[in-house]
Design brief:
Distance between the termini: 30 Å
Structural class: mainly alpha
Keywords: Membrane, Transmembrane, Transmembrane helix
Radius of gyration: 17 Å
Helix content: 40-55%
Order of helices and strands: HEEHHE
Number of strands: 3
Oligomer: single chain
Number of domains: 1
Protein name: TIGR04104 family putative zinc finger protein
Bound molecules: zinc ion
InterPro entries: CxxC_20_CxxC
Organism: Rossellomorea oryzaecorticis
């Protein structure tokens, strides 16, 4: 799990999850107050991890199983939700460069 780049205190799973859900809001360290933003590659990784299974399911598995569109959509949302629960273990955050 991600640690603070400055004081090495650990971020909570929940903090990172909420950051991802609120479209990559920066995570502020509880200990030293430093702002951490998700790295560019992690952003890419997150979209990749959510989009690829959703597309594979929607285009390959759902038609094969004869699922209707609303059911397919519901399952895709569920898949994305479950994947997002695991994302805090994989994403990287970095201290934001000073901006004026
Ligand atoms: Zn810190």
């Amino acid at each position: 799990m991600q640690k603070c780049n400055v004081c090495k205190s650990k971020f909570r799973w929940k903090e990172i999850l909420f950051s991802i859900w609120s479209s990559y809001k920066p995570v502020v360290c509880r200990n030293c107050g430093k702002k951490h933003t998700i790295s560019f590659s992690s952003k890419f990784f997150v979209s990749f991890l959510i989009v690829v299974p959703a597309v594979i399911f929607g285009l390959v598995m759902a038609p094969d199983m004869g699922l209707s569109k609303p059911v397919t959509f519901g399952i895709i949302v569920m898949i994305a939700f479950i994947i997002s629960l695991l994302l805090p273990f994989f994403v990287k955050y970095e201290v934001k460069a000073k901006t004026k």
